[in-house]
Amino acid sequence: GREDTDPFDYLFKIVVIGDSTVGKTNLLSRYAWNEFNLDSRSTIGVELATKWLRELRSHVSDDVIVMLVGNKTDLRHLREVSSEEAAEYAGTYDNNMTFIETSALDCSNVEQAFRQCIHEIYTKVT
Ligand code: GDP
């Protein structure tokens, strides 16, 4: 079976939630394939995930790792939420969630965001 050939020790599921066009698809494609699409259309999968995810909290166990990602840091002149404001919000959530700012366009912090998330999950389950 797959267990025999699978070279992995762990399989973690990361779910990306957020309003349409915030950059969820591009964060994933940047991380997974180092690809960025300037004109990406929302897909049915993404839309379904958005609906699904509204109820995330009530469907996952309490020990799920939640992380706040502020994307599009390259668009400095259009910033609407300050880093301080976002960090403060993250600090008020349950028992603290990690906050990180990224840009799928210029690559900044994308790798770090996913690594941090994976690290937190790993720490929790081992
Ligand atoms: P989703 O609906 O959340 O999946 O958002 P998409 O990944 O489809 O991105 C929506 C739009 O924002 C697309 O035109 C992307 O090119 C753009 N976009 C995504 N991430 C960034 C980013 O980090 N910086 C900039 N400037 N644009 C981005």
Protein described:
One of its GO terms (molecular function) is GTPase activity. The chain is mainly α and 126 residues long. The protein has 6 helices and 2 strands, in the order ααααβαβα. Strands 1-2 form a two-stranded parallel ribbon. The radius of gyration is 16 Å and the shape is globular. The protein starts with a helix and ends with a helix. The relative contact order is 0.17. The mean pLDDT is 84.
Topology (SSEs and partners):
Elements: H1 2-5, H2 24-33, H3 44-53, H4 56-59, E1 67-70, H5 83-92, E2 98-101, H6 110-125
Bound molecules: guanosine-5'-diphosphate.
Write a compact overview of the structure shown:
The protein has 126 residues and is mainly alpha-helical.
List the defining traits of the structure above.
126 residues; two-stranded parallel sheet; GTP binding; mainly alpha; binds guanosine-5'-diphosphate; GTPase activity; single chain
